[in-house]
Amino acid sequence: MAEVGIMAIDFKNLSDRELMYGQKTCPGCGATVAIRLALKILGERTFLCIPACCAAATTNAYPQTSFFVNNVVTAFPATGSTIAGMAAAAEAQGLEDVTILGVAGDGGTADIGLQALSGACERNDNVIYLCYDNEAYMNTGIQRSSSTPWGAWTTTSPAGEGARGVVKSRKNLFDIIAAHRVPYCATASVAYPRDFMEKIAKAKAIKGARFIHVQAPCPTGWGYPTEKTIEYGRLAVGSGLWYLAEYENGEMKLNMTPKTFKPVESYLRGQRRFQHMKEDDYRLIEKQRDREWALLRERMKS
Amino acid sequence: MKPRWIKDFHYPSRPEELAFGACTEAGVLITPNSGWRVFRPVIDHSRCVRCLLCWTYCPDGVIGKEEKELTIDYDYCKGCGICAHECPKRAISMVKEGKRP
Question: For residue B42, what pLDDT is reported?
Fold first, then answer.
């Protein structure tokens, strides 16, 4: 397997100061790892905006606030427009050293907040948008979002005798945002923290609309033991069902190109949401993955 | 690691101590998360090589690296076990609460 990124990030030099602490997320939450590491790179001078999602519900258990940076909790569809307004306000006040960060789940990004995000990308507002993708509406109790993969069980896409889980394949958010021709856009995974933090650091240095889509496994919704969050993140990338890529200066680039994929069963079998799958389903997913990767390799240079 | 400038958690005795209103001060923590835990992580410092993978992967940021040996803030550790699972040297073991390592 190819080396992930350049080893520019050294864990030893990172700040020990947490900017998010004591939140009430489930044990083993992948989204929390993503937000925590992102805030470590971005630092204290970050203005944060969170719509209704797991991160908002768990960090703001009234009267507690777990963030140590300025945080605006906004309406579900309004992350993109709120951060655009915050960026305009920061510019009007002459604040140069601040980073405006919007953090939203996959539902708040791919479904409900897509038009606001699209607007912010189109206007090229000076913001960073971080989407942590736990592949369903986990906060409200595991409902299907447009980012849920094919065949996954959720409460609104049941699986059993007559139904086979989600019947559509997921929306490719990375391609949607890259099609806006933003200065920077990337996908990442919490299982590859160096790669993820490098992308955050790169995004911080660039001006304009930046988007990072990070996969964050969710033990509650996916149905696996809490200690395996990172392992499943790694397996998703290893089996080719998630990819690390970035779009910069009009060019797409794969950060990691596995020569051989791990069998998809290794990723799917341990999760409760894929428990109903049979051999045929695995082969179908494999076929879909190979088609997707052929397309990816054609478009991107690695 | 727990931020030093955090307000120490205590159950509010007067209503004025509560953060009221739509805008509140950041970093008000009142309840710890330690009650969620069934297993607690215990670091075997003789095997630890300070690769800081546990520190990176910890969702709650309870592992501190400022001192010579890694520390764990048991007030906010939820006992998810990611640190023990990801440790390459197997220096962290999960011990059931109430039992000695």
Answer: 94
- Contacting A with CB below 8 Å, chain B residues are 1-3, 5-6, 9, 18-20, 24-33, 36-37, 51-53, 55-61, 64-66, 76, 78-82, 84-86
What are the domain boundaries of chain B? Answer: 33-96
**What's the pLDDT score for residue A5?**
43
Does a structural domain hold residue A282? yes
pLDDT band at B7 (very low <50, low <70, confident <90, very high): low
pLDDT of residue A1 exceeding 50 = no
Whether pLDDT at B9 is above 70: no
When pLDDT is averaged across residues B34-58 and rounded to a whole number, the result is 93
Question: CA B46 from chain center: how many Å?
Answer: 21
DSSP assignment of A63-122 equals T-B-BSSEEEE--GGGHHHHHHHHHHHHHHTT--S-EEEEEEEHIIIIITTHHHHHHHHH
Residue B11 is predicted with a pLDDT of 65
Within 8 A of B59 by CB-CB distance, chain A residues are 25, 27-30, 32-33, 36, 229
Nearest by CB: A63 against B3, B24, B81: B24
For residue A273, the 8-state DSSP code is: G
Domain count, chain A: 1
Chain A CB contacts of B79 below 8 Å: 27
DSSP state of A178: H
The amino acid at B58: C
Instruction: For residue A33, give its domain range.
Output: 14-299
Arithmetic mean of pLDDT, A161-189: 92
* Cα nearest neighbour of A30 on chain B: B59
CATH code at B33-96: 3.30.70.20
ipTM value greater than 0.90: no
Q: What secondary structure does DSSP assign to B25-44, as a single string?
A: -S-B--S-SGGG-SEEEEE-
